[in-house]
Amino acid sequence: MFRLVRLLMPLLLACALSACVSSKPYVDTLDESHFHLFHRPDYKDPARQWEHVLALADAGREKAAAKQAYALRLTWPEDPNAAEAQLRYARWLDRRGKIAAAAEQYEFLLEHYPTSADFAAVLDDDMRLARALFARRAGKFLFFPGVDMSEKSIPHFEFIVRTAPEGDLAAEALLLAGKAHEAAYDHPEAIDSFLACFNRFPKSPFAEEALFGQARCYRTLADDAPNDSRALDFARAAAARYLRHFADGANAPTVRAWLKEIHARQERQAFERAAYYDRTLKRPLSARIAYEDFLAAYPTGLLAEAARARLAVLPEAQPPTAPGEKP
């Protein structure tokens, strides 16, 4: 075996050396152009292409100028004029009312050319379009109000928060993303957005509405699962959280009414649990314990007298007997 290895070693070394010699050196391809079938530039040189874009714009041919600017950015993304070409194309889409497409192009500019444009102004434009998508309704016809399409705005709000997490627009973007999730019946995601808005920006003008939104979502989840005691616990905690921070808030009366309703539902659930042991399972000792727990939690509740009336007729629990004693 050792002899075979010694015989093969020169062959292996020769193969390795030939591979090293024949391997191509690294070539920087950043300056190479990229071919796009449906967006081809009119010129093969990026400098001449940019001059062509400006000439088209000066001639009033905005559509042609925007499309040729987009072709420049696609073909030569590393060119010094690529960022301005991208901005020109995004602005053209914006003026035409192509809200979603323009927002995507603004976001591409912010993500790939963050230092080559007026960052704050472009981010403001993206937020304006995201708000427009949030308020958009599809299928409006005569008296039909249309279908809520705010879900389409969520990726754009999330991009704004991700791009400028401490910026002036982040709190509002989180709030509107939460509302869009809520409109799409995605209440867990809505709660996450609402709480992120409040926890990260507790002093912002959107904090009160965000905390009200999370309380509203938890109440909706509790309504969807009427027999889920944990859902009621979460809803009660969310309402209490709002009142703890905004006792005089604009939505405080509504939240207090919710809290009163939740309290009544929890009281009824606790009484029904004791009545289940009492009437259905016929387990008087378990029922006595459940009624006593109910009265400890709701001593002045609407069902407190009914619980006391049942305790009066249920047998007392017998003390445990010692080993060897007769019960």
What does this structure look like?
The protein starts with a helix and ends in a 14-residue tail after the last helix. Strand 1 and strand 2 form a beta hairpin. It is mainly alpha-helical. The chain has a two-stranded antiparallel sheet. Helix 7 packs antiparallel against helix 8. The protein has a domain at 38-117: Alpha Horseshoe (Serine Threonine Protein Phosphatase 5, Tetratricopeptide repeat). The chain has 14 helices and two strands, in the order H-H-H-H-H-H-E-E-H-H-H-H-H-H-H-H. 67% of the residues lie in helices and 1% in strands.
**Category by helix and strand content:** mainly alpha
* CATH level 3 topology of the domain at 38-117: Serine Threonine Protein Phosphatase 5, Tetratricopeptide repeat
The biggest sheet amounts to: 2 strands, antiparallel
| CATH class descriptor of the domain at 38-117 | Mainly Alpha
Task: State mean pLDDT (0 to 100 scale).
Answer: 87
Query: What CATH architecture of the domain at 38-117 would you give?
Result: Alpha Horseshoe
Indicate the overall shape: elongated
Question: What share of the residues does DSSP label as strand, in percent?
Answer: under 5%
Total helical segments: 14
| Low-confidence sequence ranges | 25-32
Order of helices and strands: HHHHHHEEHHHHHHHH
Number of strands: 2
The radius of gyration computed from the alpha-carbon positions, rounded to a whole number of angstroms, is 34 Å
Strand arrangement within the widest β-sheet reads: 1-2
Helix content: 55-70%
Distance between the termini: 86 Å
